[in-house]
Specification:
Blueprint: E1 10-14, H1 18-21, E2 31-35, E3 44-47, E4 57-62, E5 67-70, H2 79-90, E6 101-110, E7 113-120, H3 121-133, E8 137-143, E9 154-160, E10 163-167, E11 173-177, H4 182-197, E12 205-210, H5 216-226, E13 230-234, H6 253-259, H7 267-309, H8 319-333, H9 342-358, E14 361-367, E15 370-375, H10 383-395, E16 398-402, E17 409-414
Parallel strand pairs: 1-4, 4-8, 9-12, 12-13
Antiparallel strand pairs: 1-2, 2-3, 5-7, 6-7, 9-10, 10-11, 14-15, 15-17, 16-17
Helix pairs in contact: 4-5, 7-8, 9-10
Length: 416
């Protein structure tokens, strides 16, 4: 292939199709790499992504079954306007939603037509991101159809990863599935060539580029049936992809950040975090269960005490509240007053304030065991004065709470 030799640290990687590459991309030897350097120049290696060591930059060749080449009529637009228009132009020729695809415009073909390459955006981002996360710079990404050599009278066919990439012109090509069975490969080559011949001028010969020694037999049988001479050679360094670089169709920076996220690197931290969360939830539930048992035991104790004091009670809903009410009823029936009655409460309040504090009161109202007190505003105008009143009531066993920082009214009750 007419291409510049690779430098040391450079590599060209022929990617497997998405159907089998995504599940075994990192650990299985599914990549075909042509490395640069004195010792490994133009030598094909079948390696895994993790085993592609020593490469600092790569050029990727995407499987032809994952890239669609189209030549639609394109409006005379450029830049961002062209990028916005292309999904609408090619959507009728695609089987999936155009918004989920990376669409790259190639060179103009005349008469308003333009070469357009379409690839699934998630697959493009996943693949490029996988190399970048391992410190390899992706310098270019080409469709396999256009990475084969081009000649006016000769077609090129690449047989890689159980598939066929056929280039029939400078900007024309197609992909085909061939499998592993020799007979099926023969029929696949015949079908691909017959499909291309239906709309093109018959070539004088066929140049074949294969990734292993299992391809020459099926190729020779297929071309013999079609009457085409074939020359078979080992896969070599590809040429630049016919003016198409799929990297131009990459998503914006935000989506590239998502694509760069490597879930495998976070498996252990995520597992530890999940274990910590589960342990915390288990501890909270155990503590809640312990508090629930203590609550039930305390309630049973209160209920037992209440029934011991008032055995005639038929229903016990709130033992503490019912005990207070019954004691207040008994005290009132015997002519005694409780600490929350108006007279004892007023007495304790007056005793707590003293003679100087009582002069500050403008009005007092009793309601439901509490005093509603209105002070003279000038006597409680200031934080120090209010704090002094609170402390005086606290020493007398009372709780004084103002209705607001500027309000002269307050509520006074027994301190609990």
């Amino acid at each position: 292939m007419a291409a510049a030799p690779l430098k040391r640290g450079e590599a060209v990687v022929w990617l497997p199709p998405r159907s089998e590459g995504e599940r075994a991309f990192g650990t299985e030897a599914r990549l075909l790499a042509i490395r640069g350097g004195d010792a490994a120049a133009s030598r094909i290696e079948r390696v895994s992504l993790d085993g592609l060591e020593g490469a600092s930059s790569v050029r990727l060749v995407f499987d032809p079954r994952d890239v669609v080449l189209l030549t639609p009529q394109v409006p005379a637009l450029t830049g961002s306007r062209l990028a916005q228009a292309l999904p609408n132009v090619v959507e009728d020729a695609l089987l999936q939603d155009a918004s989920a695809c990376a669409i790259v415009a190639g060179p103009s073909l005349g008469e308003g037509r333009r070469l357009v390459a379409v690839i699934d955006r998630e697959w493009l981002e996943f693949t490029v991101g996988a190399f970048e996360r391992r410190g390899m710079r992706v310098r270019a990404a080409w469709p396999a159809q256009l990475a084969l050599p081009c000649s006016p009278t000769t077609w090129s066919i690449g047989c890689v990863h159980g598939g066929i990439a056929l280039r029939t012109g400078e900007h024309e090509g197609l992909g085909w599935t061939a499998g592993e069975d020799p007979d099926f490969r023969t029929e696949a080559v015949v079908a691909a060539l017959e499909t291309a011949l239906a709309g093109a001028v018959r070539p004088e010969a066929l140049d074949a580029w294969v990734d292993d020694a299992s391809w020459p037999g099926p190729l020779e049988r297929a071309t013999a049936r079609l009457g085409l001479p074939v020359r078979v050679s080992a896969l070599q360094i590809p040429s630049a992809g016919g003016g198409i670089d799929l990297l131009a169709g990459r998503a914006a920076a935000g989506r590239r950040m998502l694509a760069a996220f490597d879930a495998r690197a976070w498996r252990v931290p995520a597992a530890l975090a999940a274990a910590c969360v589960l342990a915390g939830l288990a501890g909270l539930n155990l503590h809640w269960a312990q508090l629930a048992r203590e609550r039930d035991a305390l309630r049973r104790s209160l209920e037992a005490t209440f029934r011991g004091a008032f055995p005639q009670a038929q229903v016990v809903v709130d033992p503490l509240l019912q005990m207070n009410r019954n004691v207040s009823t008994l005290r009132a029936g015997s002519g005694q007053q409780g600490p929350e009655d108006v007279v004892p409460l007023l007495a304790r309040f007056g005793q707590a304030l003293g003679s100087s504090g009582v002069d500050a009161i403008a009005a007092v109202e009793y309601r439901e065991g509490r005093l509603k007190v209105r002070f003279h505003p000038q006597r409680v105008d200031g934080r120090a004065a209010r704090e002094q009143l609170r402390e005086a009531c606290a020493r007398g066993g009372l709780k004084l709470q103002f209705d607001g920082e500027r309000e002269p009214t307050a509520t006074v009750g027994i301190q609990t």
